[in-house]
Design a protein that fits this description.
- The structure holds two protein chains of two kinds.
- Chain A has a single domain, classed as Orthogonal Bundle (Cytochrome-c3 Hydrogenase, chain B).
- Chain A has helices at 4-26, 71-75, 80-87, 95-110, 116-144, 149-169, 191-214, 217-223, 231-236, 242-245, 253-256, 278-301, 354-360, 362-365, 371-381, 385-389; strands at 30-35, 47-53, 56-63, 178-179, 182-183, 321-329, 332-340, 348-352.
- The model of chain A has no long low-confidence stretch (mean pLDDT 86).
- Chain A is an alpha+beta fold.
- In chain A, the strands form three sheets. Chain A has a three-stranded antiparallel sheet. A three-stranded antiparallel sheet of chain A has the order 6-7-8.
- The two termini of chain A are 35 Å apart.
- Chain B is α/β, with parallel strands linked by helices.
- Chain B has a single domain, classed as 2-Layer Sandwich (Beta Polymerase, domain 2), CATH 3.30.460.80.
- Chain B has helices spanning 14-27, 51-60, 147-158, 189-193, and strands at 31-37, 41-46, 66-74, 109-117, 122-130, 136-138, 161-163.
- Chain B is globular and about 55 Å long.
- Classes of the chains: A alpha+beta, B alpha/beta.
- At the A-B interface, helix 1, helix 2, helix 9, strand 6 and strand 7 of A face strand 3 and helix 3 of B.
C-alpha cells in the first residue's frame, strides 16, 4: 500500500508540472494572496495564505493561533469543577456540549454516575447546543455565498433556543451548568412545554432553509462537486462529525459508543452522504439539526423523575488514573484525555477539539480549487476559531 | 452497593485483546507494555524505535484508520505546584519524583496518540517514551496525514522533535519564543505576576468544620 502522503506528493508534482507547462505557454506569474486574519469568512481570526496561478490555488496554508488561550496549561492550575468554566469557551456556539465530555471523563475516573434524570437533561441540553450552533451555520452559509436573508432567519430562530438554554441554566452562551455527579439545578417549571413549541419552530426553520438555500440553483452550483474529500483521506486527517459523514463514513459517537447519556433511549437516524463535497457537508448539517429536534422531542416525553445530583463529596478529589471520553459535539468529535494524580486538579488534560483536525485538511483540499471556492469550502468545513486554537 | 464486595469477575474483551496480540506479533520486542480495561479502553506502550511501525500496524493490521490526536505528557510534577504560591517568596520544596501513568515508562516525557477503528467501534491509546536529553521521535505524517498539525503543536509546546516531519514551524507562538509552555517546569506567567487569590468557591455550611470536608472522598458522611 502506497502511503497517502506519497500519493499526494506524486499528484502534486504532476499538477505542478502541468502548471509549469501552462505558465510557459501563457507566461503567467504566481501570486500570493492573503485572506484574513480579519475576514468575514473566517468566523474569527484565521489567516489563510494562498499561492495562486491565475485563478487557481496551487498552495494554501492556514495560519491559526490568533486566539490561543492555553487552556491545556490553565487546566493544570484549576480544580476539576473549575475546568468547566474554561472549556465552555472552546466552541462558544455550543458551550454546554464542551462541558459534557470533560465531566464524563472526571466521573469515569471517580466511578460516579449521574442519576438518570441528570443524564436525560444533559442529553437534551447537549442537543439544544447542537441546534443553536448548527442553525447559525445554516444561516451563515448563505452569507458566505452572497445570500443575506438566511442569516436573519437563523438569528431569529436561534434566539428561541438560547432563551431555553438561558431559562434552564442561567447562561445564554456559557452555561457552566454541568457538575461532576449531575447538574447544578433541575429544570424550571413550564420548560418542557416551551421546548416542544420551540422544536416545532426549529423544524420550520429547517424547512425554510431547505427551500430557500438548498434548492437554490446558485447555491447548488457553488457547492456541488467542490472540495471533494474522499473517505480515506477524511479518516487519515481525523475529520469528524458532519464532515466525516458527508464523505460516506457511517460514524456517530452518539450511537457508536456507550456513555452515560440518554442517546440509547431514543430513535434517531445518522445521516451520511456519499459525495464528500461541500454540498454534502452542508446537507448533512441540515439533516442533523432536524434529527436533533426529534431527539429532544423524544427525550422530553420521558424524563425520569428523581434527583439531578449524585452523592459526591463537596471537595472533589479525583483518583489516580487516565481516562479518555469524547462525544459527538456540534462540530465533530470533541474529547478530553484526563490524567489525574489523585489531586484536586487534573495533572494533564489533552483537549481534542474537532475544528483543529477539520481545518488541518485545508492545505490538502484547497490545492487546485478556484479562488471563490476557497470561501465556500471553508464555510462548508465549518470551524470555530476557539475550537482550533483552544 | 453491597456490603461484601464479590470477587471481580474475569472479563474477557476479545476485541481489545486482539489489538495487543496483533501488535505483539508485528512488533515483538517493540511492544513494551499494554493495559486493557475490558469493554472500555486499551493502552499500549511501544519503544521509540517502533513508534512509526506501530502506527502502520495500527492503521493496516488493527484497522484503526481514523486519526484522533497526538500529543505528549510531561510526567515531572510541576515545581510550581498549582500556581498558588506567593510569587515573591522562594519556591517551597516539592516532591519531584517522576511517576508515569498507565503502562508505565522510564523517561520524563512520553508522546501519546489515539486512533480509532470505525468499523468495530474501539480506540487505542498508544504511548512511547522519548529520550530526556534530546527529545525526538519518528514522525507519523507518512502514516496518518492528520498527524502533521498535531506534531507541530507538540513540537512547539513540549520541544519534541519529530524526525521526518516536513515543516515544524510554530503554530501559536512567535517564532523566536523561548521555552516550551506545556512542560511542567515552564511557569504559568499569569500566576507569577500576581498571587492567586486561592480557592474561593468552597463555602462552608453552618456547623461545618473548616478542616474536615462535610462528606469524605468516598461519599460517606464524615
Amino acid at each position: 500500500m502506497t502511503d497517502l502522503a506519497d500519493r499526494q506528493k506524486l499528484s502534486y508534482i504532476a499538477a505542478q508540472a502541468a502548471d509549469a507547462r501552462l505558465n510557459v505557454e501563457l507566461e503567467t506569474e504566481g501570486m500570493t494572496l492573503n485572506i484574513g486574519p480579519q475576514h468575514p469568512a473566517t468566523h474569527g481570526t484565521l489567516r489563510i495564505i494562498v499561492r495562486l496561478d491565475g485563478e487557481q490555488v496551487i498552495w494554501a496554508e492556514p495560519g491559526a493561533g490568533y486566539m490561543h488561550r492555553g487552556y491545556e496549561k490553565l487546566t493544570e492550575v484549576r480544580t476539576f469543577p473549575q475546568v468547566t468554566a474554561l472549556v465552555n469557551r472552546i466552541d462558544w456556539l455550543g458551550s454546554f456540549a464542551n462541558e459534557v465530555p470533560f465531566i464524563l471523563a472526571a466521573e469515569k475516573l471517580m466511578d460516579v454516575e449521574a442519576p438518570p434524570r441528570a443524564q436525560w437533561i444533559r442529553t437534551i441540553l447537549f442537543e439544544l447546543s447542537r441546534i443553536a450552533n448548527v442553525s447559525l451555520f445554516l444561516g451563515d452559509l448563505g452569507v458566505q455565498l452572497g445570500a443575506i436573508t438566511p442569516v436573519f432567519m437563523a438569528f431569529r430562530d436561534r434566539e428561541y433556543v438560547l432563551n431555553l438554554i438561558e431559562s434552564a441554566t442561567g447562561g445564554r452562551f456559557h452555561p457552566n451548568f454541568d457538575r461532576i455527579g449531575g447538574l447544578k439545578e433541575d429544570l424550571p417549571a413550564g420548560w418542557i412545554t416551551e421546548t416542544k413549541q420551540v422544536m416545532k419552530k426549529l423544524r420550520n426553520f429547517c424547512d425554510e432553509i431547505e427551500n430557500l438555500l438548498f434548492g437554490n440553483e446558485i447555491f447548488q452550483s457553488r457547492l456541488r462537486g467542490i472540495g471533494v474529500i474522499p473517505a480515506e483521506v477524511a479518516k487519515q486527517y481525523g475529520l469528524s462529525g458532519a464532515n466525516l459523514r458527508a464523505s460516506g463514513v457511517d460514524w456517530d459517537l452518539r450511537r457508536d459508543q456507550k456513555l452515560p447519556l440518554a442517546y440509547d433511549k431514543v430513535d434517531f437516524k445518522v445521516w451520511t452522504h456519499p459525495d464528500g463535497d461541500s454540498f454534502a457537508r452542508c446537507w448533512i448539517r441540515l439533516q442533523e439539526t432536524r434529527e436533533a429536534t426529534k431527539i429532544v422531542d423524544q427525550l422530553l416525553e420521558g424524563i425520569p423523575s428523581g434527583s439531578v445530583m449524585a452523592k459526591v463529596p463537596r471537595i472533589i478529589k479525583v483518583p489516580e488514573g487516565e481516562a479518555w471520553v469524547s462525544t459527538e459535539n456540534p462540530l465533530g468529535e470533541m474529547g478530553y484525555y484526563v490524567v489525574s494524580k489523585g489531586d484536586l486538579g487534573p495533572f494533564r488534560v489533552k483537549i481534542r477539539s474537532a475544528s483543529f483536525n477539520n481545518i488541518s485538511i485545508v492545505p490538502w483540499v484547497l490545492r487546485g480549487v478556484y479562488v471563490p471556492d476557497v470561501i465556500s469550502i471553508l464555510a462548508s468545513l465549518y470551524f470555530i476559531l476557539g475550537d482550533i486554537d483552544r | 452497593m453491597s456490603d461484601t464486595p464479590s470477587a471481580p469477575e474475569l472479563v474477557h474483551d476479545t476485541t481489545r485483546e486482539g489489538v495487543v496480540t496483533a501488535m505483539r506479533a508485528a512488533l515483538g520486542e517493540g511492544l513494551i507494555d499494554s493495559m486493557i480495561k475490558p469493554n472500555d479502553d486499551v493502552w499500549v506502550r511501544v519503544s521509540a524505535d517502533a513508534w512509526q511501525q506501530a502506527g502502520r500496524v495500527l492503521r493496516d493490521t488493527v484497522g484503526c484508520e481514523y486519526f484522533c490526536f497526538l500529543s505528549a505528557i510531561d510526567w515531572l510534577p510541576s515545581p510550581y505546584g498549582r500556581g498558588e504560591d506567593d510569587p515573591t517568596a522562594p519556591l517551597p520544596e516539592r516532591d519531584s519524583t517522576i511517576k508515569q501513568g498507565y503502562t508505565g515508562g522510564s523517561t520524563r516525557m512520553q508522546v501519546f496518540a489515539r486512533v480509532t477503528n470505525l468499523q468495530k467501534h474501539f480506540g487505542v491509546t498508544i504511548k512511547a517514551d522519548v529520550p530526556d536529553s534530546e527529545p525526538s521521535i519518528d514522525s507519523w505524517v507518512t502514516v496518518y496525514a492528520g498527524a502533521n498539525w498535531h506534531e507541530r503543536e507538540c513540537h512547539e509546546m513540549f520541544g519534541i522533535d519529530f524526525n521526518g516531519h516536513p515543516d515544524l514551524r510554530n503554530m501559536y507562538l512567535p517564532t523566536d519564543f523561548e521555552g516550551y509552555p506545556l512542560r511542567k517546569d515552564f511557569p504559568l506567567l499569569a500566576r507569577m505576576v500576581k498571587p492567586w487569590p486561592g480557592i474561593v468557591d468552597v463555602e462552608l455550611l453552618p456547623g461545618d468544620d473548616a478542616d474536615e470536608p462535610a462528606v469524605s472522598i468516598e461519599g460517606e458522611p464524615a
